[in-house]
Amino acid sequence: MRQKLSLKARALRYLSGREYSRPELYKKLRPYAESEDELETVLGWLQKCGYLSDQRFAESLVHRMQNRYGNQRILYELTQHNLNLDLMAECRMTLTESEYERAFQLLQRKFALQSITPELKARMYRFLAQRGFSGNLVQRAIKSWIAENQPE
């Protein structure tokens, strides 16, 4: 017969798989906690010991999403985890520095070796817009992609 995991052991098991934000881990552990006080004590201990870090969670989420999504989508995802505003501002600055390059690389991967038509431009625009890139940035990235991929 398996022994029932303590709340602390369960939390450490979750955190060994990936980074979690405090609210996210709270929701995962709540069904197993005997009381709110016990849950808050465990979460406080995890933060104090450095096992639970919103900074690491934000960096992990940004790293996981940045090669496929734009700033708007990533920042929206971060806001869903109730992170502090300073951390959000830091993530926004980091993402803004590389947003154009990320959009251009996505176009290179998705639309390589395709002939340039108005339909292709519309598909490119929708593709980037759906992934959270801003309109002006999408237009710039598409213009650059066309200039680089036009037959000579």
From TrEMBL:
The record's keywords, sorted A to Z, are:
Cytoplasm
Give the main localization category: cytoplasm
Q: What Gene3D superfamilies does this protein's entry cite? A: Winged helix-like DNA-binding domain superfamily/Winged helix DNA-binding domain (1.10.10.10)
Q: Which residues form the RecX second three-helical domain?
A: 53-86
Q: Does the keyword Cytoplasm apply?
A: yes
Sorted alphabetically, the Gene Ontology BP terms of this entry are: regulation of DNA repair
Domain spans labelled RecX third three-helical = 97-142
Subcellular location per UniProt equals: Cytoplasm
Q: Which PANTHER family match?
A: REGULATORY PROTEIN RECX FAMILY PROTEIN
Q: What is this protein called?
A: Regulatory protein RecX
What organism does the UniProt record list as the source? Undibacterium luofuense
